[in-house]
Write a structure and sequence with these properties.
This protein is of the alpha/beta class and about 425 residues long. It contains 16 helices and 14 strands. The structure holds pyridoxal-5'-phosphate (PLP). Keywords: Aminotransferase, Pyridoxal phosphate, Transferase.
């Protein structure tokens, strides 16, 4: 039955074109190459370590862990996070006033936008962006002002560090207006794998202090860095005053389905984020908050953080060894678990039967479709994370998530070798 005018859905959900996840999942389901090796979405192909799973099992058996948590989060988890972040801040973080727990980093960021963005306020976002930022900013009526990151000039021919994806700081200065309320930063970066240098963060931080702009620093991949990692909040007291730092238990502890996240920041910012969070979902999952508290408390004793870096870096290197065989350049990630590979050398057959919803999108969508159909590997086209205006910057790249079992990475490599016949 046709939807009557009065009952029609809101424009924010009804007018959307098919999103990248649906396109890729549908393509994967329809591919003749089954089962597909899925290196698309950034979920882990393995479990958190036993000491963390044990903590979750134990929490489920406790009466108070199966009931509402305080809206700002369980005291034990706030304390564990404050203790974990204090060494980076060089002072004691107050768990009661400077930490708030959210339902994943994503809802934490929605709460931050709901807390500070009024209709018509501008929020600066770098492209490529994590796609949830956009709708989360639009919900309270924010206007997004985009500043693109550019790939390295020789990205089609040479493998080099993801550090070489750069921001045009003059474009950033031009993007700032009297209505700029907030800037969203993501380091280590998804999908680029870049870690912003101290110098880059100083430029951004100083601009925010000068223009009184809040900084939402999405650091969900903070525990996966292969080069030194600087947190913008720690650069100066003036910058710290403006900064909300975002974290994710999903990314830290290989448990993206647990939906536990947090924000760390000054009390006069955190209290409004917590107020918004209370209105959005009241409080977050209790037993898994308790398990995350134990995970933080016991991480050092289990040498978890360094093992986590070592394991992911080894997955990264294992998978990326295939690109030398194929003579395809990639951006060497400095952090996180995604890698962008430049596939400009892959020649797509002129008469290939791409469906219309893929044919109408930039080349990376066609590449992703082709990979699924011809070699049986699913990956993500990164122009989904650019506006149409700037999408061409990234249309030769494809994003692979390496947070998968080693056997899956080996199978993916074996299949990707099948691309040889299409390489010029
Ligand atoms: C950059 C970035 N921020 C935030 C998130 C969401 O984190 P969470 O699962 O804790 O909501 C993701 C997940 O992919 C991400 O890549």
């Amino acid at each position: 039955m046709a939807t009557t005018e009065k009952l029609k859905p809101a424009a924010r959900v009804s007018g959307q074109r098919q999103d990248v996840w649906t396109i890729i999942n549908e393509a994967a389901a329809a591919s003749p190459k089954q089962p597909i090796v899925n290196m698309g979405q950034g979920f882990f192909g393995y479990n958190p370590p036993e000491f963390i799973l044990d903590a979750a099992r134990e929490a489920l058996g406790r009466v108070e862990c199966n009931q509402y948590s305080p809206t700002r989060g369980r005291p034990r988890l706030k304390k564990a996070i404050a203790d974990a972040y204090s060494p980076f801040w060089g002072r004691e973080i107050n768990p009661e006033t400077e930490v708030t727990i959210t339902t994943g980093a994503n809802e934490g960021m929605l709460s931050a936008f709901m807390a500070f963005v009024e209709e018509g306020d501008e929020v600066i976002v770098f492209e490529p962006f994590f796609d949830q930022y956009i709708s989360n900013i639009e919900i309270p009526g924010g206007k997004i002002v985009y500043v693109p990151m550019s790939p390295p000039k020789d990205g089609a021919t040479v493998t080099s560090s993801a550090a070489n994806w750069t921001i045009d700081f003059d474009a950033l200065r031009r993007a700032i207006s009297p209505r700029t309320k907030m800037i969203v930063l993501n380091t280590p970066h998804n999908p680029v794998g870049k870690i912003y240098s101290r110098e880059e963060l100083e430029i951004i931080g100083d601009l925010c202090v000068k223009n009184q702009i809040l900084i939402l620093s999405d650091e969900v991949y903070d525990r996966l860095h292969y080069v030194p990692f600087t947190r913008i909040a720690t650069l100066s007291p003036e910058i710290e005053k403006l900064t909300l730092t975002v974290g994710s238990a999903g990314k830290n502890f290989y448990a993206t389905g647990w939906r536990v996240g947090w924000l760390v920041g000054p009390p006069d910012l955190i209290k409004y984020v917590a107020a918004a969070h209370t209105r959005i979902c009241y409080s977050s999952v209790s037993p898994l908050q308790e398990a995350c508290a134990v995970a933080f408390e016991q991480a050092d004793a289990h040498d978890f953080w360094s093992t986590s870096i070592r394991d992911m870096k080894s997955k990264m290197d294992r998978f990326n060894s295939v690109w030398a065989e194929l003579d395809m350049p990639f951006s060497e990630p400095e952090g996180g678990y995604f890698v962008l590979v430049n596939m400009s050398k892959v020649k797509l057959p002129a008469d290939y039967p791409f469906p219309p919803h893929v044919a109408s999108r930039p080349r990376d969508f066609k590449l992703a479709w082709f990979l699924i159909q011809e070699v049986g590997v699913a990956a993500i086209p990164p122009t989904e994370f650019y506006t149409e205006k700037n999408a061409l910057l990234a249309e030769d790249y494809i994003r692979f998530a390496v947070c998968k079992e080693d056997e899956v990475l080996e199978l993916a490599k074996e299949r990707l070798r099948g691309l040889k016949k299409y390489i010029e």
